[in-house]
Amino acid sequence: EAHAHAKAETVLIASHLDTVPVDGMEIPPFDPAIENDRLFGRGSCDTKAGMAALLAALPSVLQAGRLKRNVIIVGEADEELGSIGVADVLSHLGPRKPDWVLATEPTDLRLIHAHKGVVHSRLCARGRACHSSEPELGKNAIVILARAILAIEESAKIFTQAPHPQLGAATLSIGVVQGGQAPNIVPDEARFWVDRRTLPHETVDSVRTELEAALRSAGLALEVVVESCQEEKPPLDAPATSPAIAGTTAVLRALALDAEPAEVAFGTDAGVFARAGIPGVVMGPGSIQMAHTSRESVPISQVETMVSIFEKLVTSEPEGFPVHLSGKGSSSSN
Predict the structure, then answer these.
(1) b/e code 99-108 from CB counts within 10 Å (16+ = b)
(2) Structural domains of the chain sorted by starting position, each given as residue range(s) with its CATH number in brackets
(3) Across the strands, what pairs with 52?
(4) Strand order from edge to edge, sheet including 33-35
(5) Nearest 5°: CA angle at 206, between 201 and 210?
């Protein structure tokens, strides 16, 4: 942590340190290389560049005693899956909640105030096993599963009828299918996983209800069950009055950068913090189009601009907070 003074605004800056797997990468994943204006390597874009920019910005600020905001620096784990790291951070902070959060993600330095959430569901089709030479004696769970997949996919067409004004329509994708033991056995079980991108008004319960309704409509409610339905990332929808938006837009305008809040489809830990009552925004160097790719990279020029953004952010006196008269910021580590 870096501490300005007791009455200063406190911002938590979070960059997840976990990455997606390196399978299929065309470059050495953890041996960074620079080519022209780009730094290559797994995690360079998603999302270690944001943390690197913050750590580059802070030392000179602290040395000069120019810190005007308290800063909590978080490098959390498990963002790519269930955000266990954020749960640990919230537990560690206890009642010491920051005023707002900035989650660094590859947004091409755009200020993101809203994004969709992520709910993952697992559905199981149950049949009856038998020898494949007499399939009529069994009940093929994979065939049942195929019907369920088509029914769930068809049910998603209704999403276009009620889009969010900024985020657009909710989406649904079938990402994993599993079933069968051997070609000569009619399978008695098969499963598939649904990735559902949710809008701010939707909940885990509403997603489960929606899936079960689609199965009932297809006549499959007795053969296919929703085994699990879990929210991986809540949606983010920061209001215009949020201190996160006010603080970040002021900095971007002062640097003559684009300060217009925008939206993205992917989920982030900012949504998890917001669900815990801490408003937040998302911003960072790099493009989401480069994240998770075989040649992941980040523009060095954007990282350098992010350093300037952080320098301005932590040395700016936010409106509505009292001016600290002693003049010296100090740092402390926890």
Answers:
(1) bbbbbbbbbb
(2) 2-115+236-331 (3.40.630.10), 117-233 (3.30.70.360)
(3) none
(4) 33-35, 38-40, 297-299
(5) 125
Structure tokens at 1: 């942590």
Q: Which two tokens stand for residue 307?
A: 């350093």
Task: Taking the CA atoms of 75, 81, 85 and 87 in sequence, report the sign of the dihedral they define.
Answer: positive
Partnered with residue 229 across adjacent β-strands are: 121
CA distance 320 to 318: 6
Angle in degrees, 0-180, between the axes of helices 243-254 and 300-315, rounded to the nearest 10:
110
Q: Which two tokens stand for residue 73?
A: 């620096």
Burial tier of 12 (Cβ tally within 10 Å: 0-12, 13-18, 19+): buried
Read off the pTM: 0.86
| C-beta of residue 123 within 8 angstroms of C-beta of residue 178 | no
Average pLDDT, rounded, for the chain: 93
Angle at the Cα of 76 (from 4 to 248), degrees rounded to 5? 50
Using one digit for the tens of pLDDT, what is the confidence trace for 16-44? Answer: 999 999 999 999 999 999 999 999 999 99
Contact 63, 331 (CB under 8 A): no
Residue of 47, 39, 111 whose CA lies nearest to 80: 47
Q: Tens of pLDDT along 173-200?
A: 999 999 999 999 999 999 999 999 999 9
Confidence class for position 320, pLDDT limits 50, 70, 90: low
